[in-house]
Amino acid sequence: MIQNTDKPKFAVIYEQKDITNAITPYLLEITYTDYLSDQSDEIQITLEDVNDDWLYDWYPDNGDGVELLLADDMDELIVLGRFEISEIEYRYPPSVVVLKALSTGISKANRTNQAEVYKDTTLANIVRTVAKRLNLSITGQIRDIKITTATQYQERDVEFLTRLAKTYGHSFKIVDKTLVFYDNEKLGENEAVAVLDKTSVIDVRFRDVIKDMPSEVQVSTYNTQKKQTITKTAKPKPKRKGAKPTTTDTLKITAPNNATDGEVAAMANAHAQNQADEQIAGEIELVGNAMLVAGQAILVQDFGKFSGKYLIKQARHILNSQGFLTTIEIKMLEYIDPRASDTQDKPATDKKQEKPQ
């Protein structure tokens, strides 16, 4: 169970009623997961149910609203948003109830399949059309891309926008009543919100995978009026200068007929970026801090070739009897040589230390 502290680590508002004090004696764990894209942010609240209250009088309805607040690094509570109950899980023995809720909600609009063709428009206009249909406001930065034809093939709006975002180098998700759609390149320009080193982390895992990354991406479209094929290319950019793909393979992709030059180029750049994005990535566990969320940039220091600027892809915050922990999944945006500032004052005769034989 959650231990008492001078300052509360969490608060739960259920259908506009503060139930924090009522559930604290029975609370086993709270998990909040914030995703960069492709899926809804979610919470799980795990409770002992020794009196069977949650099986009867307190049994929630799907769609009930829940607000969650967690502590930042100064132990001040911050609002993480409004969620809607999507699933109730029961376990026995002992009697335990798990409430699962999604930020997207489970409204009829999000579940309805749509079949629609968008012609002679822009990426931003398509996003605005779908947002209006879902009664959502829009936030984020959308690149100015002209689109000849985009087809929604009996898909839910959230599935269609997810596919569209990946195709043109953007990320998409729905948070509460807001549709978030932003250019991945712009995310990489964000200032770092935190600096993490060996003194500020609990556990770290990094990986560096460049195997099988193609040397080039080609996207082609056929212009039916000119009766010719138009091809645009883009090269995946390794995170470290001088690093090269291990293959000379070319990834070839076919775009719809009559796609514009800008559309084809955007697709090539998006696929090249996707190929390079997962080259250097990792996971960091640290003392709980709900201020760290997906989409933010951080600096990682004191880890040699893994040092650099990273983007948070996913942040998971877990509060239980063991304490409050945050785990972030990250991918490298830019390698920053940790010795670069030191070498300026060193004599020219200094040599790189030889590897052990």
From TrEMBL:
UniProt cross-references to PANTHER family, sorted A to Z: FELS-2 PROPHAGE PROTEIN
Superkingdom: Bacteria
Organism: Moraxella cuniculi DSM 21768
Pfam families: Phage_GPD (PF05954)
Annotated Gene3D superfamilies: Baseplate protein-like domains
Signal sequence, renumbered to the chain: none
Protein name as catalogued: Phage protein D
